[in-house]
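retry 2 of 3: previous attempt timed out while embedding guanine. Reduced batch size to 1 and resubmitted. Inputs unchanged:
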Amino acid sequence: MPILLDGKKLASEIKEELKNKTIQLKSAGGKVPHLSAILVGTDGASQTYVNAKVKDCEEVGFESSKFVFDDTITEEELLHEVDKLNNDDRVDGFIVQLPLPKHINVDKVLSAIKPEKDVDGFHPVNFGRMASNLPAYIPATPYGVMELLKRYDIPTRGKHCVVVGRSHIVGSPVSILMGSANYPGDATVTLTHRFTENLEHYTKQADILIVAVGKPGLITADMVKEGVVVIDVGTTRVADATKKAGFALKGDVLFETVAEKASHITPVPGGVGPMTRAGLLMNTWLAAKNEIY
Ligand code: GUN
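retry 2 succeeded.
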C-alpha cells in the first residue's frame, strides 16, 4: 500500500505552529496579522471557501474581515474596493475570491492589488518574482503541494515531474517551482494541458505526477508507472445523495486503482485542500511580518 500524504494532519501542524507564533507576537506587543477577503456574488463553492478562510484565521488567532458584494457590482466599484484595502494599514493582506462575474476583467482586478498585500500570489509582479526565484508570495495551492513534498521528504532533484493542467492558479506555478533551483524543485518538468496529444505517453514517465484539471477520474492506473508519487489537486463537487452536503469531492485521479501502483498519494478530500488553506495563512503571516517585501 502507498504512503498517504496526509494534508489534513500537516495543515493542522502548520496551523498549530502559526497559532503559537501569533500568541508570542501578541504577548510581545506586536500587531496580529489581518487577512481580508472580497467575495462577489453568491457562488456556493466560493462562499464556502471564503468562510473557511475566515474560520482558519480565527483558529490561529489572526484577525480577518470579509467584504461581500452583489454580482451586479461594476468593475470600477470593485477596483475602488480593492484600492480601499490597498490603503488600509490595518489589513496586511487580502484576496479577491475567484471566479468573478463575466462583466469584470479579472486580470485588471488582480493587477490592481498591491503586490505587497497580494497573499494569493496572483499579481504578475509576484508571479514574475516567483519565476525569477526572488522572494514572493507563492499561490496557496502550489505552496501546499511543495510543503507536502517537503514535509514527507520526497526526493525531487533530477526526477521527472509531469504536471497535468496549466492553470494560472496551480499547474503553471507548480511547473515553475518544480523546475526551480530549490528543494522541492530541481526536477525535469513536463507541463501537459488540454491540447497535449497522447497524455498517457507523458504520465507513464512521471516519477512525480501532479494533476490539477478538475475532471474526476481523468488519471487511471494504466496511465502511471509503479512507484509514482501522485499529487491530486482536483476537487470537483459530484452529486451524492448519501452525503449530508448532497455532494462528494472527487479528485482527478481514480484513487483506488492508481493507489495500488503509487509509492505515495494524496487522498481527496484531506490531501492538497487543507494545505491550500494553510498556504494562505502562511502568506498572511509573511505579509504581516513584511518578510517578502
Ligand atoms: N478560487 C479558487 N481558488 C482560489 C484561490 O486560491 N484564491 C482565490 N482568490 N480564488 C480562488
